[in-house]
Amino acid sequence: GQQVMQIPQYQHVQEGEDFTTYCNSSTTLSNIQWYKQRPGGHPVFLIQLVKSGEVKKQKRLTFQFGEAKKNSSLHITATQTTDVGTYFCAGPAGGTSYGKLTFGQGTILTVHP
Amino acid sequence: DAGVIQSPRHEVTEMGQEVTLRCKPISGHNSLFWYRQTMMRGLELLIYFNNNVPIDDSGMPEDRFSAKMPNASFSTLKIQPSEPRDSAVYFCASSPPGTGGSPLHFGNGTRLTVT
């Protein structure tokens, strides 16, 4: 079945450093979604990418969707302590999935002040 | 909109007891998902419903787990009997109509501890 892999599993940075997490799917995706989960919280939708090669920005966050629509990345510029949490990518399961998503295992980001 | 509402927020129970988790999806959303999250296994999809009908329950770990969605505004996940290895955070999520393109809205989760 479809697999979505994320690397790295953990990332520790000093406040002000940049951070990148990478997501790879075993199958071509119609779209990819990114979620953030704060410690003790629940996953919250950040963004969806649909087009091949698409790049979207949200303030210090930059999201990219690969040309082959099988990989994606999230880059945070100049991290802040508020960026702490787990970042998940997720892709549709394919077929008639009624919104079913396959989640990556997430990247846990720690930001040291 | 109040978002997806789950209850209880925390549940502590003894092994062998029945546990029922509850979820109210966002009004107008027609897909509902139950996820389990642990450090070891991450976010696992247990079961999901579309228009109140169970579509895929292949993620349900065993017969001790069951889920129902009697109407568009309510779903339950039941574990009977519970075991310590069921300890996890259980999330309910809903999404609006769409085939694979709609973001999921998660509830705050139920933290289950089975002793």
Which ranges of chain A are low-confidence, i.e. pLDDT below 50, for 5 or more consecutive residues?
Answer: none
Number-wise, the strands of chain B total 11
The sequence of SSEs of chain A as H and E is EEEEEEEEEEE
Please state the overall shape of chain B, judged from the principal axes of the Cα atoms: globular
Biggest β-sheet of chain A: count, sense, barrel? 6 strands, mixed
Q: What average pLDDT do the residues of chain B reach?
A: 94
Can you describe this structure?
The complex is a heterodimer of chains A (113) and B (115). Chain A is built from no helices and eleven strands. In chain A, 0% of the residues lie in helices and 53% in strands. The mean pLDDT of chain A is 93. Chain A is mostly beta strands and 113 residues long. Chain B is mostly beta strands and 115 residues long. In chain B, strands 2, 4, 5, 6, 9, 10 and 11 form a seven-stranded mixed sheet that branches. At the A-B interface, strand 5, strand 9 and strand 10 of A face strand 5, strand 9 and strand 10 of B.
List keywords for this structure.
heterodimer, A: 113 residues, mainly beta, six-stranded mixed beta sheet, five-stranded antiparallel beta sheet, 11 strands, B: 115 residues, four-stranded antiparallel beta sheet, 54% strand
Topology summary:
The complex is a heterodimer of chains A (113) and B (115).
Chain A: E1 4-7, E2 10-14, E3 19-25, E4 32-37, E5 44-49, E6 55-58, E7 61-65, E8 71-76, E9 85-92, E10 101-103, E11 107-112
Parallel strand pairs in A: 2-11
Antiparallel strand pairs in A: 1-3, 3-8, 4-5, 4-9, 6-7, 7-8, 9-10, 9-11
Chain B: E1 5-7, E2 10-13, E3 19-24, E4 31-38, E5 42-50, E6 53-56, E7 65-71, E8 74-79, E9 88-95, E10 105-106, E11 110-114
Parallel strand pairs in B: 2-11
Antiparallel strand pairs in B: 1-3, 3-8, 4-5, 4-9, 5-6, 7-8, 9-10, 9-11
